[in-house]
Amino acid sequence: MATGTFPDNFLFGAATAAHQIEGSNTNSDWWAFEHTASSGCRDSSGDACDSWHRWDEDLALVQSLGLNSYRFSVEWARVEPAPGEFSPVALDHYRRIVQRCHDRGLVPVVTLHHFTLPTWMAERGGFESPEIAARLGAYTERVAGAIGDGIGLACTINEPNIVALMGYLLGVFPPAVRDRKRFEVVSDAMRSSHRAMVEALRAGPGRYPVGLTLSMAEMEAIEGGEAQYAQALEHLEDAYLRAVGGDDFIGVQCYTRLRFGPDGPVDIPEGARRTLMGYEFRPEVVEHTVRRAAAVCGLPVVVTETGISADDDAERIEFIDTALRGVAACIADGIDVRGFYYWTLLDNFEWVLGYSQPFGIVACDRATFERMPKPSATHLGRIARSRELGSPVGAEPRQ
Ligand code: IFM
Fold first, then answer.
1. Deepest in the core among 30, 105, 274, 371, taking most CB within 10 A?
2. Residue 391, CB half-sphere, CA atoms under 13 Å: how many?
3. Is 212 exposed, middle or buried (0-12, 13-18, 19+ CB in 10 A)?
4. 361 Cβ partners below 8 Å, 6+ apart?
5. Which pLDDT does position 391 carry in this prediction?
6. The overall pTM is greater than 0.90
7. Ligand 1 atom closest to the CA of 359, numbered from 1
8. What is the mean pLDDT of residues 359-368?
């Protein structure tokens, strides 16, 4: 494979998550959190991008751009609104999305859990409940039974390390806890839940690759930060990378570089380019994390998320271009990388930060829900169609 080209079966897609785009996910812990004054949430997710109704418009967009895959998540709170009570309407909704993906020539990549819990599960202790793995397993079994024959690729839990970190150590996601012991309990529960979900998916109809999607970063120690760095690497990445043996792929999700000093993460270097999230602009993180994930767990890799929040779409184009060059370099070196999903299709609900973070390759009008593709959408689509990177974008130094 010549450097800068992608295999014919390489997946090019855009990724989304139910709570961030569907709207009115009122039976979930996040909806409750957004409506709690002390949570610090900037907005209510409200109607989000109304993708619960406009999902086929979204699929048409993905298809028209020239991408060959779409990643979305199934919402547990809708599928199982009360313990053991499953909604045929919700399952049928997701079945229609899967079928329509096939009609439109898109490989459907389905995530079973993306950050949210049904309210009833949160009330029973969420990821601290001894029931969690069995409950997620039972929910997954139902979803697999309903749509498994059409799934292209399945992701069990999205960024379990972030759910544990933000919810139980940093206290900024529900249930807003800051407790090292509880963080460790939840981290273990993430891994056992993943295993239960893999089993449930494999026992159902259809044969498709199954994996976990992990948030990774380019981590570095600065002087005196070696212990903090080693601890972060172990708890946030390696403990998961060791637990995915026997899976079919590892999903790598990455956004930036993190540097550690003696007291933990340090601010990004003065003068370094920042994204709107305040992250260091670092598209090279994709190559770094793909190489690391492949080396540590030995599984095929899918870049299930990477992207940038930016008002200036030229920055997004540059990010995508550099990120894909990194992926192409990995492939040229013989690493089995199977796909690249830009986060995200639509400007959407960015959790605590609400609607303040435009990550999308498509803008979404907050009043009319009109979808307006940005030049970065065309750029990604051109690469997906041709399977070739042209000349580098954004090579000129910026002021
Ligand atoms: O929006 C999130 C997504 O839900 C999980 N991965 C990171 C994205 C950007 O912060």
1. 30
2. 3
3. buried
4. 14, 65, 316, 342, 344, 345, 373, 374, 376, 377, 380
5. 86
6. yes
7. 9
8. 98
CA nearest ligand 1 atom 2, residue: 350
Quote the crossing angle between the two packed helices 285-297 and 313-332, to the nearest 10°. 30
List residues bridging with 113 in a β-sheet. 157
- Residue 85 among the catalytic residues: no
Q: pLDDT tens, 215-258?
A: 999 999 999 999 999 999 999 999 999 999 999 999 999 999 99
Residue with tokens 């010549």: 2
213, 244 Cβ separation under 8 angstroms: no
Distance CA 360, CA 284 (A): 20
The ligand 1 site (C-beta within 6 Å) comprises: 17, 20, 159, 253, 305, 343, 350, 359
pLDDT at 393 exceeding the cut of 90: no
Instruction: Give the whole-angstrom CA distance, residue 306 versus residue 107.
Output: 18
CA angle 116, 118, 122 (to 5 degrees): 85
> Of the residues 159, 216, 275, 361, which should be mutated to test ligand 1's pocket, given the most ligand atoms within 8 Å of the CB?
159
Please state whether beta strands 337-343 and 11-15 pair in parallel, antiparallel, or not at all (unpaired).
Answer: parallel
The structure tokens listed for 10 are 């390489």
Task: Tell me the best of 30, 72, 343 to mutate to test the pocket of ligand 1, counting ligand atoms within 8 Å of each CB and taking the most.
Answer: 343
Q: Residue 89 corresponds to which tokens in the numbers above? A: 């309407």
Write down the residue that tokens 């979404």 correspond to: 364
What is the pLDDT confidence band of residue 4, given thresholds at 50, 70 and 90?
Answer: confident
Grade residue 394 by pLDDT with cuts at 50, 70 and 90.
low
Q: In 10 A of CB 365, how many CB atoms?
A: 11
Closest ligand 1 atom, residue 351 Cα: 1
Q: What are phi and psi of 214, to 5 degrees?
A: -115, 135
Rounded to the nearest whole angstrom, what is the distance from the C-alpha of residue 351 to the centroid of ligand 1?
8
